[in-house]
Inverse folding.
């Protein structure tokens, strides 16, 4: 007699909100032969080729399984999910390429580190040199003197002195790059991810992103120190969380408008181009200096109900003011002469 209440598998029990398709995907991948098939198809994959199909016999030889019946069984399981069957054989589907790419980008087994290395920018709070380091799969900008902007007590759980956390920078990003190039590459990726999050698109999975403004009610962060209540130097912060894959991050509230057209134009009028090459860490450092000194100290709550937050961007002789509502949409842009 079948039990109507059969015990759930560990995968089903653990999945929760991730749902049954996630359980199916993990089950499909839970076998060495199937992983070997994905790797062999990846090895044969050439992004410039017209057709990346691998014939059954070539694939069978590469995977090195003794019994062709077993091989066929596992290959059939993957077809229609991570692998596509074509007239000429088999090739990875986009989802199959993403699985292999995630492993290649992170590696997981080889610990990559970048020892603290000075970069061409100074701390906006205390003026001390700033160092770049890579630790525990995260890239950090860390002030060498003060407590920085985000600390161990924040949701980002960053080391003392952290000014910026690059959450998404993969270990692969360190390969064949100088520290200066890592700094620029990390910054380009950081801003690209932020641009997507601001517009509600998850940079990892394309899913819908939820945005929320956090106001620290008892904020107390003297210059160069972190607030004990929120663990950051920002009274106003915005957090983004993907409703599908839980990717996201927390930023000073001004980050929500860092690439608003009025801001980009304002910087451009002040002689700064926000595009820079991998070989240009000086301009990249200047961008961070501008963002930090231009925005960081000038966030004011002008109204609580409805919420209106004013963010100011300081130029040489003029200041740009943007008014944001509680959903961080820009409701007003003005300029004032200093
Ligand atoms: Zn500092
Ligand atoms: Zn606080
Ligand atoms: Zn996502």
């Amino acid at each position: 007699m079948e039990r109507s209440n059969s015990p759930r598998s560990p995968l089903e029990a653990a999945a929760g909100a991730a749902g049954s398709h996630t359980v199916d995907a993990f089950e499909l991948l839970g076998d060495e032969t199937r992983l070997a098939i994905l790797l062999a198809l990846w090895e044969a994959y050439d992004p410039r080729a017209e057709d990346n199909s691998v014939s059954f016999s070539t694939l069978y030889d590469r995977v090195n399984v003794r019994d062709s019946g077993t091989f066929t069984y596992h290959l059939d399981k993957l077809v229609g999910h991570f692998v596509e069957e074509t007239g000429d054989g088999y090739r990875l589907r986009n989802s199959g390429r993403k699985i292999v790419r995630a492993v290649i980008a992170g590696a997981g087994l080889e610990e990559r580190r970048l020892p603290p290395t000075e970069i061409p920018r100074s701390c906006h709070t205390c003026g001390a040199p700033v160092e770049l380091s890579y630790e525990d799969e995260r890239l950090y900008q860390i002030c060498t003197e003060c407590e920085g902007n985000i600390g161990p007590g924040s949701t980002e759980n960053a080391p003392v002195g952290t000014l910026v956390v690059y959450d998404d920078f993969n270990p692969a990003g360190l390969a064949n790059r100088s520290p200066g190039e890592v700094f620029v590459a990390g910054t380009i990726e950081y801003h690209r991810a932020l641009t997507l999050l601001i517009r509600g698109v998850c940079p990892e999975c394309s899913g819908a992103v939820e945005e929320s403004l956090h106001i620290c009610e008892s904020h107390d962060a003297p210059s160069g120190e972190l607030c004990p209540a929120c663990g950051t130097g920002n009274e106003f912060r915005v957090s983004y969380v993907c409703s599908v894959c839980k990717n996201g991050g927390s930023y000073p509230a001004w980050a929500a408008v860092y690439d608003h057209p009025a801001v980009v134009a304002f910087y451009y009028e002040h002689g700064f181009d926000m595009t820079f090459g991998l070989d240009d860490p000086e301009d990249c450092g200047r961008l961070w200096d501008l963002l930090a000194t231009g925005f960081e100290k000038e966030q004011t709550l002008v109204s609580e109900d409805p919420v209106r937050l004013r963010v100011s961007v300081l130029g040489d002789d003029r200041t740009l003011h943007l008014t944001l509502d509680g959903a961080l949409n820009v409701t007003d842009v003005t300029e004032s002469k200093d």
User: Anything to note?
Assistant: The radius of gyration is 24 Å.
